[in-house]
Amino acid sequence: MSLISVGTMAFDAIETPFGKIDKIVGGSGTYVAYAASNFVTPIQQISIVGYDFPAEEMDLLKKRGVQLEGVEIVPDKKSFFWSGKYHNDMNTRDTLVTDLNVLADFNPVVPESYQGAEFLMLGNLSPSIQLSVINQLKVRPKLIVMDTMNFWMEIALDGLKEVLKKVDVLMVNDGEARQLSGEVSLVKAAKVIMDMGPAFLVIKKGEHGALLFHKNHVFSAPGLPLEEVFDPTGAGDTFAGGFIGHLAKTKDISFSNMKTAVIVGSAMASFCVEKFGPNRMKEITKKDIETRLGEFVQLVNFDIDLVA
User: Please, which residues have CB within 8 angstroms of residue 76's CB and are 6 or more apart in sequence?
Assistant: First the structure.
């Protein structure tokens, strides 16, 4: 079943305690596509790149079932570029450079061939871009998932709230959930945010897993303990790709199946952090994914004898 993915295709420069790389392909749309294509095709990509984005990267995405008709190539400008440095705990980072380049003029156009897609993943972009894509779709998708961040809460809160009214699932981290809701308790924060529109809320907590909220229900997924976290860049986007990829594959958007989707997303994110950029995502096989999912099952499986 077709899935539209809207997000950046870009370059990153990354420094972590484990190493440094001056230029590697990144962007939310790139990570979502690599993760989701393990579960469903086609992935109908909507993005914008400059003349410098590698043709071989485009070819690799095509081979994985990613359609690029919705990717605009600007011949006289560079692609979006981000540079960041992670601290020793790998949960905090400093943004060193943000060059919007082509992203400054991004006005997405949904190709006619993308119309009728049942699933829509709105990557972390300006709320006005996210809303534009929703409004261009002639038939509302079965499920709309949206990612956002604190930056948009600070400079485009009204626009963000407008998009929230139109989506089914919102993904944020714990700090962003508190910022958006004004609540310290994540349970209270979830209720406030769901009142803004989304029926489901995923709160990502990095190495500590993720929470899924729906009405009065909550599900807690663990983070897989890893010996080394090499590069956390793109982990949240990879989580999103695994999450919506599983839902699109199964065509089941119940709370019960979303719990499974959260585990799938967590498993995909655990691969992503093992190498710089999306490099690890290019290597993994179906067998690798099955094995990693099994590790998550073992992590939460236990028997208990209740004392009478």
Answer: 51
| CB within 8 Å of 216: residues ≥ 6 apart | none
Residue at 306 is within a domain: no
Q: What is the CATH number of the domain that holds 95?
A: 3.40.1190.20
Q: How far apart are CA 184 and CA 182, in angstroms?
A: 7
Domain assignment present for residue 308? The answer is no
Q: Is residue 58 part of a domain?
A: yes
User: Can you give the C-alpha Rg of the chain in angstroms?
Assistant: 18
Total domain count for the chain? 1
Tell me which residue range forms the domain holding 136: 3-300
Q: In what order do the strands lie in the sheet with 217-221?
A: 66-74, 43-50, 3-6, 119-122, 143-147, 169-173, 200-204, 210-214, 217-221
Q: What is the DSSP letter of 273?
A: T
User: What does each of the 308 residues of the chain score in pLDDT, given as a tens digit?
Assistant: 699 999 999 999 999 988 899 999 999 999 999 999 999 999 999 999 999 999 999 999 999 999 999 999 999 999 999 999 998 877 778 889 999 999 999 999 999 999 999 999 999 999 999 999 999 999 999 999 999 999 999 999 999 999 999 999 999 999 999 999 999 999 999 999 999 999 999 999 887 899 999 999 999 998 888 877 889 999 999 999 999 999 999 999 999 999 999 999 999 999 999 999 999 999 999 999 999 999 988 887 777 777 65
